[in-house]
Amino acid sequence: MPKLIKDGAIADNTWQFIDTAEDANTPLPTAPLPTGNIIVPLAVWQAQKETLKGRRNEIGVWLNSTELADTLGSDAAELPLIALRFPVFMDGRGFSTARLLRERYGFTGELRACGYFIRDQLFYLKRCGFNAFDFGEQYDENELEKAMQSLNDFSDGYQTSVDQPVPLFRRRA
Question: What top-level branch of life does the organism fall under (predicted)?
């Protein structure tokens, strides 16, 4: 089973990504959906929400970097998992989307970073609200152990964040 970093530990990835046609109104695949927890694109969630809610297993939603937190809106509270896909490691839009999901929409579930991000970004991703990191097949368990150390690259941050809403100068006063 594939592995990922979740809540500061290596865990099994028990979710499966479902990729579909670009047209969200295209019905879900005619073959039965896999059993277990699935993550569907935002457009599919929006077009087929009621059908998906009828499944026995849990549903998560993934957003591309071009899809804003506002497009998911209040639906965020209904979901156990939201995954944000990074198309390239230099694309920082996922950082902003994560923070908005946590702070504006009150999302408390698993917020997963997927795609092209690098180990050096983990500390900052965590500060924006991510609590799960899916490197895909590019990292084996040994590499994941090393990557976990990056979650604590710095002992403190100056700015406010999801994980520390009080700035450093106020904490030191």
Answer: Bacteria
